Amino acid sequence: MKGARLVPLALGLLLGLALAQDGKALYGQHCAACHGPQAQGVPGAIPPLAGNPRVQDEAHVLKAIKEGISGPLEVGGTTYNGVMPPMPQVSEAEARAIALYLKSLSGGSQEVQAVPQAQGDPALGRALYLGQRSLQNGGAPCQACHTVAKVGFLGGGSMGKDLTDAAKRLGGEAGLAALLKNPAFPVMREAYKDKPLTETEAAALAAFLVQVSKEAPRPPSLYLGRFLVAGLVLFALLLFYQLILWQMRPRSLAERIRAQLRR
Question: If you average pLDDT over residues 50-57, what whole number do you get?
Fold first, then answer.
């Protein structure tokens, strides 16, 4: 009887170990880009998960993955004000495996080493954002969908969210770089699935977003002038096109006769 009782316990232990291993791989796929390969977080921007008492509550972890979570959150005496968006691509079973893995990280008082963050070049980030410099893996420039403090000839795209205050909402430069490397937003994740940003590109774009968030907003009159110039250029092109069509039109009989008489 005693041996019969031990069998389910052993099976449960083996199953838990297997789920933890799967959770480690899933963590690396979905979480490590932001929270770090050792779940150490980003100082001042993204909270650590290793040693974080909150991850002992499986329901809390599952809700954070499913619904997202935002600050202010206090972990280890530090307050974090970033935003973690929901991750609908992670299934319930995968979320449970990740939660189990995180519990195993928080079981002891292990110390994790902080991974140094790449320093971004805001000038390079501006060029990448505007499309003046192509992304290494062929992704579309940010301006195609987003606007940032109306930077760019016509102020940027309107399909995506305005990113002017992204640095404040998403954890500063470090948090932005992590999100750009591993997008949690479904549309962006799909758009860059096979064209990921490099570490240098993500750091540069994050630095640009931080810099531009501190700049004074541009006056609307600036863009009114640009729209007028664009309208005049378009009008001139239409007139030129109409002139070409007029020259290429079939001539009437009267016009042909007059042309012959002039000769």
Answer: 88
